[in-house]
Amino acid sequence: MAKPIMIQGTMSNVGKSVVAAGLCRIFRQDGYRVAPFKSQNMALNSFITKEGLEMGRAQVMQAEAAGIEPSVAMNPILLKPTNDVGSQVIVNGEVLGNMSARDYFAMKHTLIPQIQKAYRSLDEAYDIIVIEGAGSPAEINLKQDDIVNMGMARLAGAPVLLVGDIDRGGVFAQLIGTVDLLEPEERELVKGLIINKFRGDKTILDPGIRMLQERAGIPVVGVTPYLTVSLEDEDSLSERFGNQEKVDLIDLAVIRLPRISNFTDFNIFESMEGVSLRYVSSPAQLGNPDLILIPGTKNTMKDLLWMRSQGLEAAILKAHGKGTPVFGICGGYQMLGKRITDLQGVEEGGTIRGMGLLDTETIFEAEKARTRVKGSFQNLKGIFAPLSGHSFEGYEIHMGRTTLHSGMCPAAWMEDQVTGKKKEDGCCGENVCGTYVHGVFDREEIATELIRALAKAKGIEEGVGTAMDFAAFKETQYDLLAKGLREHLDMERIYEILWKGTEA
């Protein structure tokens, strides 16, 4: 049986996912077979496994850090918000249905056997399981039938490390307040405290740390610095969204949709010299980019209407009319067409006008397309022409089906890696292109060719770098993360906590 250890946090976005990933890499480096686990994840960024099943990207990142293939057993329940009060519920990689928050909370206890089954499958195959919690274990309104924080710790018999975020302020109150709000039996499970994202001289924290340990009766097992590593971050509070103004030689503008999903599709561009990647939500922020990217979304129709109400659609059409290329992925591709129809009420129901940049029509169907693919671009036009013939791989995850009209040509031909079937994908017009494939830019030659084409169009010959091997780059980042955590965590104490378990 595997030894579990659980990472919980005082709130969302304190760094639980990153700390868990770092521990996965450390344990792997130390020779252990390690797997990540999160019983319930709420996120719009998701991933398709080689079996064609859907899971949260945080556990994919952690699996990469652990050097293993991602599996839905690592994230048996995924909630993808569809609006402010409801989510699509995905269990073991398959869609269970759309539910209101109230309906889900009323039935989630029935999913405990699914969680236990998934956890057992990892328990039998690995030496260590690094479990991640969600939000805070002290949310009183969520504690009944909890399946992701202390409820999960009890199910797994896992000791807990509680993480607080000093960068957002009030870290001592975060940690003491969380511990004080726990039930006595829950407090007994917390075996260590971590102060995360610290900048400066650690010695100035020493008086506070002593007080914290005295008040909580729990040791501080590390003060980790604000680590400058580039990892796939699925949290909607991602700092990536903060960059709206910095413009480099080649400027890429991503439309920050309210229900943006899989914005990790564009991460490769962040590592390229001379390239800026900005997330924008207004015409003023849009400026004059060299390429406009419209990402995926959990609600294509509502986010298109939002773009329309904000004046962003008009700004994009005006920019395209002046020669700025536009590329859409998944929901962004659907928006580029002439019409979107939802007769079954999958999203908003009815029919709305699209942006009209491609002569396509999307019709929503109840069945979700969910698979991994390999393919190559065909005879693309305009600025995208240099991509023609280049191979890519990625995954599809969408509800709609898009039809091409008026002799429009597909952007690519590809093979479904789950069924083996050949099929066409996407559409490309003059300086406008769309695809359903997430991860389409991840191969360095595709990202490099696109940036070179944009630079050539501006007459730029120097100062713009090529993309690196993205998979190899991520490996270096996991190693940097592990190195940083080793230097600032008391790993000897953490191993002691791990081996002794809840008796530590």
Automatic annotation (TrEMBL):
UniProt keyword annotation of Cytoplasm present: no
Pathway: Cofactor biosynthesis; adenosylcobalamin biosynthesis
Gene3D superfamilies found in the cross-reference section: 3.40.50.880, P-loop containing nucleotide triphosphate hydrolases
Residue stretches making up the CobB/CobQ-like glutamine amidotransferase domain: 252-444
Gene Ontology MF annotations: ABC-type vitamin B12 transporter activity; catalytic activity
GO BP annotations listed: cobalamin biosynthetic process
Keywords: Cobalamin biosynthesis, Glutamine amidotransferase
Active site: 330 (nucleophile), 438
Domain of life the protein comes from: Bacteria
Role: Catalyzes amidations at positions B, D, E, and G on adenosylcobyrinic A,C-diamide. NH(2) groups are provided by glutamine, and one molecule of ATP is hydrogenolyzed for each amidation.
Family assignment from sequence similarity: Belongs to the CobB/CobQ family. CobQ subfamily.
Protein name: Cobyric acid synthase
Chain's gene name: cobQ
